[in-house]
TrEMBL record:
Gene3D superfamilies the UniProt entry points to: HIT-like
InterPro entries in the record: HINT, Histidine_triad_CS, Histidine_triad_HIT, HIT-like, HIT-like_sf
Listed name of the protein: Diadenosine polyphosphate hydrolase
Species in which this protein is naturally found: Ligilactobacillus hayakitensis DSM 18933 = JCM 14209
Keywords, comma-separated and alphabetical: Hydrolase
Length: 142
């Protein structure tokens, strides 16, 4: 896709700081650097989001995440953890519509990065959770 910024990065039309690349994926530093070492891992095949992955592409991309994450962690002894984030769709804060996984090193609770998960425990019952789970389970395709 010629107007995709990530496809242009893969093609070498836009410079990037590549930290890993093979025939299936490219990993490069996010220009925004939410924290030092913030890396994006992208499939070289243009797909918009997680909903377009098949099993083979998912295996190719996600199998590489741990070794890239370990390399990032090993690069700085101050790294204490890592958020792995994948936004899918505009409502989920996806801004570049070429699938990408953020590897965001965490240094401490004051490193400037945050995520918030709302606690909706009081809004659910065991029965409503069973109903939600059953609805999802019946949609899983083999």
């Amino acid at each position: 896709m010629t107007d995709c910024i990530f496809c242009k990065i893969i093609a070498g039309e836009i410079p990037s700081t590549t930290i890993y690349e093979d025939e299936k994926v490219k990993a490069f530093l996010d220009i925004s650097q939410a924290t030092k070492g913030h890396t994006l891992v992208i499939p070289k095949k243009h797909i918009a989001n997680i909903f377009e992955y098949d099993e083979k592409l998912a295996a190719d991309v996600f199998a590489r995440i741990p070794k890239i994450a370990r390399a990032i962690k090993a690069s700085d002894p101050k790294i204490q953890g890592m958020n792995i984030v994948n936004n899918n769709g505009e409502v989920a804060y996806q801004t570049v519509f070429h699938s990408h996984i953020h590897l965001i090193p965490r240094y401490n609770n004051e490193d400037g990065f945050s995520m918030t998960f709302q606690d909706n425990t009081e809004k659910n019952t065991p029965e409503s959770l069973q109903e939600i789970g059953a609805n999802i389970s019946e949609k899983i395709e083999d």
